[in-house]
Amino acid sequence: MSSNHSDNLFLSVTEVQQRIINDIKAIEGIEQVDLRHALGRILAKDVVAAFDTPPCDNSGMDGYAFHSNEIADNETLTLKVVGQSFAGHIYTGNITAGEAIRIMTGAQVPNGVDTVVMQEHTEKPDENTVFITTIPKPYANVRKAGDDLTIGQTFLATGKKLSPTDLAFLATQGIAEVAVKRKLRVAFFSTGDELRSIGETLGEGDIYDSNRYSIYGLLTNMDIDIIDMGVIKDDRQAIEDAFNTAANVADAIITSGGVSVGEADFVKETLEKLGQINFWKIAMKPGKPLAFGTIGDSLFFGLPGNPVSVIATFYQFVQPALKRMKGQDIVLPMIIKAKTTELLKKRPGRTDFQRGILAQSDSGELTVRNAGAQASHVLTSMSNANCFIVLPAESGSVEPGEMVDVQPFEGLIG
Ligand code: AMP
Ligand code: MG
C-alpha cells in the first residue's frame, strides 16, 4: 500500500468500503463454547444435522388420529376411540378400521394412523366414541419426521452470527457446544493536546475526550474485547509508543483525530514509519479524512476527530471491516427506502450521511425526517437519530415526499 499516490484524490464511500473489505481475512482462532455462551458469536464450522427433526411423525394439534382410508364422501364420520397418545407417552396398541385414538400436540403419530382432526371439529357422544363434524383432508395436521431438518443437512453455516433462534435450533439437535471464532481484540486511543479525560479539570480551550466512549460502545455492541489506551498526547515518542503497544496486543487499532490535513505531521510520519498506511480523502459528509492500513499484524483505522465523523466513519468502514475480521458473513449496513417528510438540504459533491429519525406512519409506510442540526461536532442530532439518511454524491436537496435510502442503526442504539 502506498501512502502518497492517493493523497489528492477523493474516493467514494463504496470504493473505500471495497478497498478495506477486500484486504481483510477472517481471524484464524477458534474456541469451543457451550450453547448459552454461543449467543451473538460467529460460527466457525458448519453444523450438520445428526438425525431428522422432528425425529418422528407427530401431531400438530390436540384432537383424534385415524387412518385416511376412513375418509369417504360422507359429511361426518363416527369412530371408536381405542386409546391415546400424549407427548412423551406413545400409544403402542393396534388401530384397525373404524378406530381412532385421542392425540395431543407433539405426541407421536403411531403406526396405523396418518391423519389428525382437531378437537374443535369433533363431538364426544360417549367415552369411547368420537363424532367428526368436519372431516379433514388426508394426512392433515401431521408434522412429518424430517420436516425441519434431514440427517446430513448443513443447517447453520460458518460465518453466521448466532441468534436466540439458532441456540434453539442447535438444541433441537441436542448439541451442547459449538465452534465459534475467538473474540477480536481491538485497541483504541484518542490523540489531541486539547483532550482531557473525565475526572480531569478543563483548562482554557480544552474539551473532554468523548470519542473514546462512542468507540467503546460501538465495539462493545459488537462483542469485541477492548483495550482502552486513553488519550495520547500530540508527542512523537508518546504516539510511537502507543502504536507499538497497540500493535503488540490487538487485532486492530482505532484512533480518532490527527489524520486531517494540517495536523502535526509526526502522526503521519510515525504511521508511515511503523506501518503500511493509506491516507484517504473520502467524498462523504461527515467524515472525509481516513487513514487505513496495517501496523505489524494489526489493522489500523485512523478516524477523523469530530465526534459525529467518528461514528459515521466507524459505521461505514470500521464496523464492516471488523465484522469481516470476526468471520461474519454479512458485513455492510442494510439499506432500505423511506419517504422523507421534510426537505433535506444538500449540496452536490459528497455522499451525505444525514442523521435521521425513521418511523412508520399509521398506514404502515416508512417515513424519515431530519434529526436536527447536521454539523459534525453536534451530538444532539446523533443522539436523537435512529438511522442515517444516505444521499448520493451527485444529489442536491431532496423535496418532501421523495424516497431516500436509509440505514437503520445496528449497534448504535438500544
Ligand atoms: P482533528 O482531526 O484532530 O483535527 O480533530 C477534529 C475535531 O475533533 C477537533 O475539534 C477536535 O477537538 C475534535 N476531537 C478530536 N478528538 C476528539 C475526541 N477524542 N473527543 C472529542 N472531540 C475530539
Ligand atoms: Mg487533533
Helix percent band: 10-25%
What do we call the CATH topology of the largest domain? Molybdenum Cofactor Biosythetic Enzyme, Chain A
Number of domains: 4
Ligands in the model, by name, code or SMILES, are:
adenosine monophosphate, magnesium ion
Hey, roughly how much beta strand do the residues contain?
A: 25-35%
Distance from N terminus to C terminus (CA atoms, Å) equals 38 Å
Describe this structure in words.
This protein is of the alpha/beta class. It has four domains: 10-29 and 182-326, 3-Layer(aba) Sandwich (Molybdenum Cofactor Biosythetic Enzyme, Chain A), CATH 3.40.980.10; 31-53 and 147-181, Molybdopterin biosynthesis moea protein, domain 2 (Alpha-Beta Complex); 58-143, Molybdopterin biosynthesis moeA protein, domain 3 (Beta Complex), CATH 2.170.190; 336-408, Beta-clip. 20% of the residues lie in helices and 31% in strands. It is built from seven helices and 27 strands. The strands form seven sheets. The protein has a seven-stranded mixed sheet, sandwiched between helices. The protein has a six-stranded mixed sheet with strand order 8-5-7-6-10-9, with no helix packed on it. The protein is elongated. It binds adenosine monophosphate and magnesium ion (MG). Residues 191-192, 257-258, 263, 305 line the site of magnesium ion. Magnesium ion binds at residues 191-192, 257-258, 263, 305.
